Amino acid sequence: GFAAEVGTSTRLQSTPTFLDPQTAEESLQRKTETVVTEERDAWALGTMIFLIWCGSYPFFSFEEAVLPLAALLQNVVFKSKTTRPPPPLQHCKGMPSPVKALITGFLQWNSDDRRRPRDVVEGFLAATASEPATSSATAAEGSVRPRASRSQ
């Protein structure tokens, strides 16, 4: 696997179609080490969510995805330094606005502008916490109250 702790330096390993522009550029420069960051993970997560919802990669076609590695990475770096197109969400039918905002937040060309996965999770947990968590002992005793329905 590629797992590494955020903030650590690690050997550059990747799935090229999920690389953010900064890591793509490092790879083209033949850097062998990189620092693991939430921003890099955010780009990969945004790409994955886009792929699941839309059935394509956000910034290149399936045909481009199988190009030689250098050509694919050069394409990503070129776009990041020139046009910086937004994710083509108009091709994703039926996508709810919150999902569009999530993808757009993750797929910012400037890494400093990207939403962080941790912030999204914390926001989700805060928004969905309707009552204090119960202990496993309480749950095992069967005294867990059902959540209120959404229609209430």
Task: Describe the structure concisely.
With 152 residues, the protein is mainly alpha-helical. It has helices at 21-28, 38-54, 62-65, 69-81, 97-106, 117-128, 136-140, and strands spanning 9-11, 33-35.
What count of domains describes the coordinates? 1
User: What is the mean pLDDT?
Assistant: 83
- What percentage of residues falls in helices of 4 or more residues? 40-55%
Distance between the termini: 44 Å
Keywords: Kinase, Transferase
Organism: Toxoplasma gondii CAST
Pfam family, one: Kinase-like
Protein name: Myosin-light-chain kinase
Written description of the protein model:
With 152 residues, the protein is mainly alpha-helical. It has one domain: Orthogonal Bundle (Transferase(Phosphotransferase), domain 1). The chain is 45% helix and 4% strand. The protein is built from 7 helices and 2 strands, in the order βαβαααααα. It has helices at 21-28, 38-54, 62-65, 69-81, 97-106, 117-128, 136-140; strands at residues 9-11, 33-35. Helix 1 (21-28) packs across helix 4 (69-81). The protein is globular and about 50 Å long. Mean pLDDT is 83; it is low at 135-152. Residues 130-141 have a biased composition (Low complexity). Residues 7-17 have a biased composition (Polar residues). Residues 1-32, 130-152 are annotated as: Disordered. Residues 1-125 form the Protein kinase domain.
Task: Name a few traits of the molecule.
2 strands, 45% helix, 4% strand, Transferase(Phosphotransferase), domain 1, mainly alpha, globular, 7 helices, 152 residues
